[in-house]
Amino acid sequence: MLKNGTWVLITLMLGTSMAAIDSSIVNVSLPVIRNQFRAEISQVEWVITAYMVSFSLFIPLINWLKSRIGYYNLYLFSVTVFTIGSLLCSLSVSLPMLIVARVIQASGGGAITPTSLAILSESFPPEKRGTAIGWWGIGNVMGPALGPTLGGVLTHYFGWESVFYVNIPIGVLTILLSFRYLGFLRSKPRTKMKFDGSGFAFFSIFIVLIQYTVSLVSRKQAWSWNLLSALAICVVSLWLFIRSSRKAQPLLDLTVFRSANFINSAVIVVIRSVALFGGMFFLPFLLQGLLGYTEIQSGLLMLPNALMMLVARPYAGKKADQGYIRNVSLIGILLVSVSMFLFSRINVGASIALIILPMLVRGLGMSLLVAPVSTSLLNAVSLPQTATATSMNSLLQQLGGSIGIAVFGVLNTFIDNHYLTRHYTPAVAEHYALQDGFLVSAFVIALAFIPAVNLPQKHFVREADKTPEAKVIH
Q1: CA 439 to CA 62: how far, in whole Å?
Q2: What is the DSSP annotation of 154-206?
């Protein structure tokens, strides 16, 4: 029996929250960064692109690193590198230095979330796993939601450097708590797993080119030869990566996809990320556009969403522990889709109540959706596959989010031009385009009903969990 289970959870939550917030907090600071370094928009985009690419490239290394150095050293190393990278970002005196610092930061950030989720999955028994994931996921979901607003407030009052400085005290506290409460992980057995160099090479090509194609789409270069060539190479590199995974010690154990429950859970993660990252990316623009709210007012209006998740996530986790997987997930999908529809109805003159209502509905829906799906995904694999499952979860969420932002960005421009040709003013055209974007997002998230109806309703236990050595926390 492990002592201080609550502090173990808090330690993992802190690291995850720090990494999750940083995935979006810098976005609103980009115009200020561009002006300070006198750079072009295409150059400043690398502040985001370099982070996303490095973040995604590091994720498949987690299983190999875990086998070589163990979860304790991996988590401690990841948080330390992320904190050092944050310090270097805040001290950057040029755009190239900032981009390099972002690569360092992402090298740590890419491992924090899947590593902490794997530690939770392997340490907490099945009857407590959903509750633990529910609490842990608060920071993982609230980060992207509050990041842009927090970044805007910090940048306005303290400069763009502050969005990186804020990570340093959190990182130091997480490191100290890791020394104190994660020491039990040192006893976990390690193996000298061979590094799959060819698999990592194929995977790297795929990730780099998929991000490149996303950037081409966002720059409205659809159907160009560059895009078609990149897509073709993406497909080939993905096929070669899948073939290389058949070896004895692959980079990622793709046999997890033999489980129907894992596939259904993974598809929901992708759909959720595409719809939410794409749709919610526009929420600050909706509030601060024709509606006329300031950055601070927007932050306060988004606060009910975060508070609802804070209250409802533990409840959703307990329901997952009690075996309510499918029905809770379906209700969550319905509520999130309804919240997107309600966002699309917000118009000039709307009362504060009509803005807060969809915030609350979204917070409740996300809470009911994330914990059961994550529990189902982890319970669909054996104990040795946990690191792969959590890595795939983070990778699919990252890719889905970046694709969602790019696709919804192009869609927004297309719809905006449509209203401009109908002689609406630019402000009104943008407002209507944002409303229509939320409608599309509501439809996309509703597509998750298809895999969700195939999720297990009753909580099932992994075979590995039935062994005494698998039960660490009781």
Answers
A1: 37
A2: HHHHH-TTHHHHTHHHHHHHHHHHHHHH-GGGGGS----PPP-HHHHHHHHHH
Is residue 144 predicted with pLDDT exceeding 80?
Answer: no
> Do 285 and 152 meet the contact criterion of CB atoms below 8 Å apart?
no
- CA–CA separation, 253 and 200 (whole Å): 13
Mean pLDDT of the chain: 82
CB neighbourhood size of 299 (10 A)? 19
Q: What are phi and psi of 382, to 5 degrees?
A: -80, 165
Q: Which two tokens stand for residue 266?
A: 């993974």
**Range in 47-61, 116-130, 212-226, 307-321 with the lowest mean pLDDT:** 212-226
Where would I find the H helices in 281-385? 283-288, 295-321, 326-344, 352-379
Q: Is the dihedral of CA 186, 187, 188, 190 positive or negative?
A: positive
Whole-angstrom distance, CA of residue 91 vs CA of residue 98:
8
Q: Any idea how long the chain is? A: 474
CA torsion, points 244, 249, 254, 260, in degrees to nearest 10? 140
Q: Which two tokens stand for residue 428?
A: 């009104």
What confidence score (pLDDT) does residue 449 get? Answer: 93
| Block residue for tokens 């988590």 | 75
Q: Which of 48-62, 160-174, 446-460 has the highest mean pLDDT?
A: 160-174
The pTM is what? 0.75
Instruction: Kindly report the backbone phi and psi dihedral angles of residue 356, in degrees, each rounded to the nearest multiple of 5, phi listed first.
Output: -70, -35
* Contact status, residue 130 vs residue 319, Cβ threshold 8 Å: yes
Highest mean pLDDT range out of 46-55, 99-108, 243-252, 369-378?
99-108
User: Does residue 223 come out as left (phi exceeding 0), alpha (psi in the -120 to 50 range) or beta?
Assistant: left
Q: Cβ of 176: how many Cβ atoms within 10 Å?
A: 11
- 135 touches 13 (CB < 8 A): yes
Query: 3-class DSSP state for residue 275?
Result: helix
Residue type, 223: W
* Higher pLDDT among residues 122 and 75, named by residue: 75
DSSP letter (8 states) at residue 27 = G
